[in-house]
């Protein structure tokens, strides 16, 4: 038992390390001028404004010397629509997001936004088109105002307040003694998880980009704040090309389009109701893997095998 257990544990630890690094890079995506590993093409042009149609065209990808993670993938994300990526752990969902944010370049094929190959555009113009709201809300040392406006330094006070209102953050901010001037502490340690999340949602409202990338939390906040955040995120997604890695039934059921990824390939796609009627991969995930929107009691019952 020890023999099999030890390496598995070591692997799990490695995986946590990888994840932590990626979250770091994605948070920085909003403020960095360029991804860490890539260079901008010398003749790069600005990505022109457009509706935000994203395409993966025959995309093949593996991480450094690793196995193929995406295999000749063709996939479209329609402007103004919410697409939920679902599939087993390690299937390649996060990798798709990484390539769209151009944290890596594909080995073969290309990723386009409104028909433009993203490896040929300036990082700054690409970054401006995309907002990322992740599982681990990241805040920088400084005030709440600064954290909402980050990457958007020319924002006015009223724009910041509007964004906070849209994110259902204005209320709690005003209840703090220093309001928008409150110091969030190191990585937001003076705030609750839900408050931090609201601030990152406000940041995304202020950026107002056509493309929104969401990595849904697996761990739940307290259910009251979670319902509020979910509504705010729904408002945020409205009218944008939204891609979400979904872990919850409600998110998946509310999406316009579901894409099931298994082993680096698209195995099924379509509107949720249609996929439920098929006796396929989505139906199996739906039944066995997605998390219900349960309160603590239901979760406990579920964990205990009901
Ligand atoms: P999960 O639901 O667990 O997040 P996923 O579907 O998002 O899984 P990916 O994170 O895209 O899957 O991972 C696909 C494969 O690539 C996995 O085998 C994973 O271990 C590997 N991988 C992911 N990120 C990296 C990285 N930064 N460096 C090396 N390998 C990676």
From TrEMBL:
ABC transporter domain residues: 54-288
Keyword Membrane: yes
Main location: membrane
GO cellular component: plasma membrane
Membrane topology category: Multi-pass membrane protein
GO molecular function, one term: ABC-type oligopeptide transporter activity
Family that this chain belongs to: Belongs to the ABC transporter superfamily.
Name this protein carries in UniProt: ABC transporter ATP-binding protein
């Amino acid at each position: 038992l020890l023999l099999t257990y030890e390496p598995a544990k070591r692997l799990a630890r490695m995986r946590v390390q990888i994840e932590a690094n990626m979250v770091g890079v994605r948070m920085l995506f909003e403020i960095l001028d360029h991804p860490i590993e890539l260079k901008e093409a010398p003749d790069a042009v600005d990505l022109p404004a457009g509706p935000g149609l994203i395409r993966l065209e025959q995309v093949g990808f593996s991480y450094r010397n690793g196995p193929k993670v995406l295999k000749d993938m063709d996939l479209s994300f329609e402007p103004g629509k919410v697409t939920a990526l679902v599939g087993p752990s390690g299937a390649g969902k996060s990798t798709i997001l990484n390539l769209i944010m151009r944290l890596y370049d594909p080995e073969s094929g290309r990723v386009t936004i409104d028909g433009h190959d993203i490896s040929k555009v300036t990082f700054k113009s690409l970054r401006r088109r995309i907002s990322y709201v992740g599982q681990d809300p990241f805040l920088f040392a400084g005030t709440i105002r600064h954290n909402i406006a980050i990457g958007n330094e020319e924002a006015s006070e009223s724009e910041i307040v509007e964004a906070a209102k849209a994110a259902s953050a204005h209320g709690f901010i005003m209840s703090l003694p220093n309001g928008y001037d409150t110091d969030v502490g190191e990585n937001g340690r003076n705030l609750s998880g839900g408050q931090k999340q609201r601030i990152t949602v406000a940041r995304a409202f202020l950026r107002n980009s056509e493309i929104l990338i969401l990595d849904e939390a697996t761990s739940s906040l307290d259910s009251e704040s979670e319902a509020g955040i979910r509504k705010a995120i729904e408002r945020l997604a409205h009218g944008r090309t939204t891609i979400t890695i979904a872990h919850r039934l409600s998110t998946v059921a509310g999406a316009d389009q579901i894409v099931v990824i298994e082993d680096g390939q698209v195995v099924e796609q379509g509107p949720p109701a249609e996929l439920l009627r098929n006796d396929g991969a989505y139906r199996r995930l739906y039944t066995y893997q997605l998390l219900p929107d349960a309160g603590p009691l239901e979760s406990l019952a579920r964990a205990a095998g009901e």
